[in-house]
Design brief:
With about 475 residues, the chain is of the alpha+beta class. The protein has 15 helices and 16 strands. The protein folds into 4 domains: about 90 residues, Uridine Diphospho-n-acetylenolpyruvylglucosamine Reductase, domain 2 (2-Layer Sandwich), CATH 3.30.43.10; about 120 residues, 2-Layer Sandwich (Uridine Diphospho-n-acetylenolpyruvylglucosamine Reductase, domain 3), CATH 3.30.465; about 110 residues, Alpha-Beta Plaits (2-Layer Sandwich); about 100 residues, Alpha-Beta Plaits. It comes from Marinospirillum alkalitolerans.
Amino acid sequence: MMTPEQIKHAVEALIGADKVRLDDEALDIYGRDWTKIHTPRPRAIAFPRSTEEVQQIVRFAREHKIALVPSGGRTGLSAGAVAANDELVLVMDYMNKVVDFNPVDRSVTVQAGMITEQLQHFAEQQGLYYPVDFASAGSSQIGGNIATNAGGIKVIKYGMTRDWVLGLKVVTGTGEILDLNRGLIKNNTGYDLRHLFIGAEGTLGIITEATLRLTRPPQNLTVMVLGAPSMPDVMQVLQAFQKRLDLTAFEFFSDNALAKVTQHHQLQRPFETATPYYALVEFEAMTEEIMEIAMEVFESCMEAGWVEDGVISQSETQAQTLWNLREFISETISHHTPYKNDLSVVVSKVPEFLAQVDGFVAEHYPGFEVVWFGHIGDGNLHLNILKPDNLSKEAFFEKCHHVSDKVFQITQDFGGSVSAEHGVGLIKKDFLHFTRSQVEIEMMKGIKKTFDPDQIMNPGKMLDL
């Protein structure tokens, strides 16, 4: 086995001096993501600047049987970017440039290390819009978004990251550079390999560039926060608004989520009435007629008893303030050492599914506090269990592993997914069979063997071969 010093010398001979770090600080920072379960233990950290440099590192790693872990913004929640087994980490931070922009095609090609928010700002400067958005947009990177097929708060209107990827440049586990789809909208020439790499979590190869579709920016986004007495009522509200308006977002959160956010960030509650659940509704109020329709729907929901109170934004600042009630939840509960589950079912099954999960946790783990929030408009719920003060982190995560087994069984019974948007990584690898059939898993293993025959690409993540 090559020592870290030998790896540093060899890789810097390929890509240049001062591009590999071995110090403890770097090993800790770049060997982890947002999860707290696995202790990072990488062998070395490399900082390539181009696709060709990534290719050189992959060929070197393949020759010497060194496992590679790609590292983006390290905001993942499935331990997909954790290097815990002497891997060489490829940090994409310096591959953050705009490569090309075409206003006619409304497309932009960027390196994989570009931060999501920077892409959003670039699109805005061109009078366009990149709609994939979530709380970690200020630090997540495009390559990581694509590798996990990130979703976020606008999926109900704009879809997942997959829907915005026109082309990819990747380096496979064999060291080959593939230029996939080349930005074409129509390309009916066989298998679309681009989509294999979207959501593959770096297990087939490393994404180095992406060509992304842009669209027109939304106009006069307006936000409502509505208090509902039950989850079935929240779904009635969703149905009522969707009948009359095209929504850009429909989120929900529980009252204890709201209580923690308002206390931690010293924010005001949206209204005095406390309700078990809250819906955040966003739409484009481009005309007075649309605003009138929104108010009509709100009043009808009040009359039906689905909503007990509500508020509507009167400015962009107020809209952002209301969004903060939802967007600050993840950061707020991170101080409580949460065990997070990212689940999805078809929208119509959400209330019954949530009730069954809630009932199981309350019956078998009465000391656990549960915080719910999520992208309810597309059936995506985030189940967060907060660590009790009297439990060690190790004991808590061990108990939660057993919770997950039952929760995922419920998810399977509802025909849902054990990972709606966070990926599989290390944390959910053992539970993949709850969503994928054995035949599917074997086919996925076959695909990995084709692109990564020596098993050097993020090994141990998603699949065990």
